[in-house]
Design goal:
With 82 residues, this protein is α+β, with helices and mostly antiparallel strands. The chain contains 2 helices and 4 strands. The longest helix is centred in the N-terminal third of the chain and has 12 residues.
């Protein structure tokens, strides 16, 4: 069984950045989370998850993030075995 690490870029709808950040922490329990400013006032959440490849997948986690109210876009930044 291999461990996988994946970093998602999560973009929130305007004015919902803090709400999205808190919801991800509470509902999905990521290994770590950080924010970066990408342009004039636009922030992206860098959300890191680890999981066993036999029990979960990055697409399932991505779908869970997309289901959170206020999320406008999600994409995989990095994915690797750890």
């Amino acid at each position: 069984m291999a461990k996988v690490g994946v970093i998602f870029n999560v973009y929130a709808e305007e004015g919902k950045f803090d709400e999205v950040s808190q919801s991800i922490k509470a509902k999905l329990n990521p290994a770590s989370m950080d924010s970066q400013e990408v342009a004039f006032g636009i922030k992206v959440l860098k959300v890191f998850f680890t999981f066993d490849d036999e029990q979960n997948s990055s697409s399932k986690i991505e779908d869970s993030i997309k289901a959170i109210e206020g999320v406008s876009q999600v994409d995989v930044s990095e994915e690797s075995l750890i």
